[in-house]
UniProtKB/TrEMBL annotation:
Lineage: Bacteria, Pseudomonadati, Bacteroidota, Chitinophagia, Chitinophagales
Keyword Endoplasmic reticulum: no
Main location: membrane
Protein function: Catalyzes the transfer of an acyl group from acyl-phosphate (acyl-PO(4)) to glycerol-3-phosphate (G3P) to form lysophosphatidic acid (LPA). This enzyme utilizes acyl-phosphate as fatty acyl donor, but not acyl-CoA or acyl-ACP.
Organism superkingdom: Bacteria
Stated name of the protein: Glycerol-3-phosphate acyltransferase
Membrane topology note: Multi-pass membrane protein
First-tier enzyme category under EC: transferase
Cell location: Cell membrane
Catalytic activity: an acyl phosphate + sn-glycerol 3-phosphate = a 1-acyl-sn-glycero-3-phosphate + phosphate
Length: 218
């Protein structure tokens, strides 16, 4: 019964619609009516810019961290060596589901990538570090947040299964499921990438301007 209550609490934490609240409070609009129509960090980068996109991403990550650490409220899981990992996965997944289907926003939320990263950060920080580096590298090279998210998501099970060789079967299954879920929720982005219509994050704009000026000289 206590576990069920904490899973519900984790879902409610994940349901906090960061992007929607930011867009309504500071800009007087609903971000779901702009850009891709998605209430997540990627669309916030696209519509509201780097500053607010970074803020939304950080808060959505924090939701995953907080939800995963709810296991600390039950002494049995604190003292266990393996059971707490399974419970953390359950709590984190509840937060991710809450982010994708938030009760506070008519069950229309984001894609859950930042919240997934938050729960991975809570469970296995070193894996999260590698995933973050992959995300940032792809973002630096392409400026596509969606592509960065997908490649980081695909790298996640590769790191778990082969690089770190995680022994927990539940964690291995979870990693594969998350990679599939991230790709599945980015179908529209994949289509836009293939068509050349995907928007780029407004970062490194000075570098891009220099490239444009150089190209105009020739």
């Amino acid at each position: 019964m206590q576990e069920f209550a904490l899973i519900i609490l984790a879902y409610l934490i994940g349901s906090l619609p960061t992007a929607i609240w930011v867009s309504k409070i500071f800009f007087g609009v609903d971000i779901r009516n702009y850009g891709s129509g998605n209430a997540g960090a990627t669309n916030t980068f696209r519509v509201l810019g780097v500053q607010w996109g970074t803020f939304v991403m950080a808060v959505d990550m924090l939701k995953g961290v907080l939800a995963s650490f709810l296991y600390l409220l039950l002494p049995y899981y604190v003292d266990s060596q393996y059971e707490h990992v399974n419970f953390m996965i359950g709590l984190g997944l509840a937060a991710v589901i809450g982010h994708i289907f938030p009760i506070w926003a008519n069950f229309k939320g984001g894609k859950g990538v930042a919240t997934v990263f938050g729960m991975v950060l809570a469970i296995q920080p070193m894996v999260a570090l590698f995933v973050a580096l992959i995300f940032l590298l792809v973002l630096f090279l392409t400026r596509f947040v969606s592509l960065s998210s997908m490649l980081a998501g695909i790298a996640f099970p590769i790191l778990i299964l082969w690089i770190f060789n995680e022994p927990e079967h539940s964690y291995r299954i979870f990693a594969c499921a998350i990679a599939f879920l991230i790709v599945l929720t980015h179908q529209k982005n994949i289509n836009r990438l293939l068509q050349g219509n995907e928007s780029k994050a407004r970062i490194l704009k000075y570098r891009d301007r220099r490239k444009e000026r150089k190209s105009n000289q020739f």
